[in-house]
């Protein structure tokens, strides 16, 4: 039986078994049919995984579209890995600044302020997520 002809209960169960990571690996898996996409989207929102950079994009998208408000009952786990400073710093230092030590402090301060604002926005969003079971914050080295 083709996937798009399965009853919604079985389709939803199958999509949950696959998990959100499966959809992130290949977004084409979401386009089986319009009906399956309607069931897959909440599954995709169950496990949110952010870096410092993707958190910023998510917060900006949510303020523009109200994305998570309509799906807040589906979010179950949120992971935030803070490993972006080193990569962000390397990107900024390529622009060239003769006073590298002063520049480094400005970069770190700017990154920290921006990250704090994004984390505050995420906290406000997550307070409305009734199904949230796990929030994982992890500081990682930039070697990932």
TrEMBL record:
This is Uncharacterized protein. It comes from Epichloe festucae (strain Fl1).
